[in-house]
Amino acid sequence: MSSYKVALVGNPNVGKSTIFNSLTGMKQHTGNWTGKTVGNCEGHYNFNNDNFSIVDIPGTYSLMSNSEEEEIARNFICFEKLDAIVIVVDATSLERNLNLVFQIMEITSNIIVCVNLLDEAKKKGIAIDFKKLAILLGVPVVGTIGKNKKTLVNLKNEITNVCSGKISPIPKIIKYIPIIEDSIALLSPEIDIPFPLSRWISLKLICNNERLLSSISNNFQVNLNTPNINTKLDEISCLLARNDINTSNIENFLLTSILKQCENITNAVCTYKEVNYTKRTIKIDKILTSKKFGIPIMLLFLCLLFWITIVGANYPSQLLSDFFASLKEKILVFFEYVHSPTWLTSLLVNGVYQTVTWVISVMLPPMAIFFPLFTILEDLGFLPRIAFNLDKFFKKACASGKALTMCMGFGCNAAAVVGTRIINSPREKLIAILTNCFVPCNGRFPFLITVATIFISGSIAGIFSGLVAAVVVMLVVLLGILLTLLVSKILSKTILKGLPSSFTLELPPYRTPQIGKILIRSLFDRTLFVLAKSISIAAPAGIVIWLFSNINIAGVSILDFIATTLNPFAKIIGLDGYILTGFILGIPANEIVLPIILMGYLKNKELIDIENVAVIGNILTTNGWTLLTAINVMIFTLLHFPCGTTLLTIKKETKSIKWTIVSFLLPTLCGIIICFITTQTYNLINLLI
User: Fold this and answer.
1) CA separation (Å) from 228 to 186, 189, 553?
2) pLDDT tens by residue, 374-415
3) Longest Cα separation, the chain
4) CA 358, CA 597: separation in Å to the nearest integer?
5) What are the beta bridge partners of residue 52?
6) Read out DSSP for 613-624?
7) Cα dist. 77→74, 85, 102, 103, 431 in Å?
8) Measured distance CA(471)–CA(183) in Å, rounded
9) What are phi and psi of 261, to 5 degrees?
10) Does the global pTM surpass 0.90?
């Protein structure tokens, strides 16, 4: 048995991850919009007694760009020892996709071109001559439908043939304009690396891509700064200058040659029938992306999403709470049976167990509903339309339209931070990281929903109560989006000055969601993944909370002491000491803020597990909560420091303690200022009345 390593590359939204899943059986996220695979994902399959390791590389349009996901793709292709590279292209957009094919052919010859989405091409009346395409490219070409495993047999055969050496592809490398070809011929002999890499490295030297050249020197351990090379580069520079070519425009000349060849090959191998496939998409897009209806429809969908989540999560949350309560009694009996010390029993059960089970019962049901629904919108192709509608607002804020990765923040802000890797500009990526916490994560929704239900929709009976609560939560989300744009604008004009960069926003066709795969990946890849991270942080947090509530200093618990100390400041912004303490101790996980507040009010020694909204409402109103308190709490729930997991992720992504501190202070200061303004305005109105 032989083992081979194969890379899977391609433009975003060509079905690359679907092919990866079909080959390996892994359930990677395959969303119907660009930028889903941020880091490499590896899987395995066996075929004809050989073992194949498949690496799914982030989708990229070009190897000439400097965005993080494109650097990951380029570096992996250039520097990893691969037996074959499968380039997945979209059968409905062959000309555009061939651009990447030609760029990769300059680096390696072990290539298979996989023409995917043949089913959609057929609907559009597009037919492709694969044999002719293979001759024109000089590499094997296979047609597939990613979700149909039967169509992948030929792909597996070609991968085996290329990896084993049965087929030795000879790519038809692009011939550029004569002046550039002469320059390459002049420099290539000085590069002590075999063809075709020597040709490609010569091009990068001529283009003076310093960042890539540094990686080439380190990975190939080759000196690209020799006197001979520098002499040749000076000679080439003069030669190009006489033809008005320099390092700032040479890549345009390269791309012009590549795109011309893409056009010629596409015209040679594709035939088209007149069909009305796109009419439905055009009609729907006229509504969903219109200036008049686009934003209202987006808000309606989000409101409906929140409402279904709110109403649907109540029953399973109660069932989980009851289950954990009954299990707690059995655990207490066990600890009593083994004669566990009282303090240890209380620490483990009332501290760790109570905190962890609260997080599970509060987080799991909403996530199990929200993520599948959100993923359905993603698979339908609706999320890219939201990006299209909001892109102009991001441009006005001098931020990248790709900052719409904030949508991932509805599930987990840490995931949204990682998602910013698709943003090309370091400045815009940093802005997106610093503002991503203005979108409430899944851990903050239960608190928002509870407060909205008690103080705003509590007097409304029946199903409309949940609808009103959903509208209120939607308004809070809108506030977060507006602040994202406002703060992005301020940052762009002050400490992170700059203009917005351009980017390609692709509107994919509407596709029928695959419900089975949606349930699997939304529950396992998202829900359980986020839940596991929250539990890992909630367990030690339970110990800290138990210590704070059980250790007394001068007859006062640490929790009460902190709350009393913070109370004067908290009152200024319309909160109280216990509310502020709840947020501070809730840094490990936002889900435990409310139970900490209830624990403080009731002078309890453990987290309070109360699922009845009416009972929670009575406790809050008894302790001085008013409508103003509820409004300020919802504002501060939206606008306060990120959770511990997100802060650690920000530190990892920015590699900077300074920006991690800024990400902590920025939303918190916004929350304090807005709560202060709200409180003082309310008090002023009361005085005037």
Assistant:
1) 11, 10, 76
2) 777 777 777 777 777 777 777 777 666 665 666 667 767 877
3) 91
4) 14
5) 4, 45
6) HHHHHHHHHHTT
7) 5, 8, 13, 11, 30
8) 64
9) -65, -40
10) no
